[in-house]
Description:
Helix content is about 60%, strand content about 5%. The chain is mainly alpha-helical. It folds into two domains: about 1-70, Orthogonal Bundle (Arc Repressor Mutant, subunit A), CATH 1.10.10; about 70-105.
Amino acid sequence: MDVMEKPVQRNAAGKRKWTAEQKLALIQEWRNGLPLEEVSRRHAVAAAQLYKWRRDMERGLTERGEMVPKSQVATLQKRVEELERALGRKALEVDVLKKFYEAKGFKLPEGTCGA
C-alpha cells in the first residue's frame, strides 16, 4: 500500500496526525520538483507546515525515516563523540602494545590484529 493511500489519523481534538512516512512522502514530492503550492493544495497542508517538516527532517532524520526530537539528536551526537574518543584511546593503546612487543622481540598472541 502506498504511504499516501493510508488515511491521516486524527487525535482526540480532531486534528490530523501525520505519520513520519507520510510527512517524508510529501517532502519527497516537493523535492522531486512538484511545486510547493501543488503539494500543499493536493494534500491540504499549509506551506508553512511543509517547511517545518522539511527543517525538522533535515535536523533529525534517522536511517529508517523516523523523525527524532532535536534534543535527542544532540544527545546522540555527544554520545558518538565520546565513543569516538574512547575508540581513539584504545587504538593508541594497541599501537603502543604492538611497539612494545616488537621492541622486546615478543610474538603477538594468536588472534590479535596485525599478527
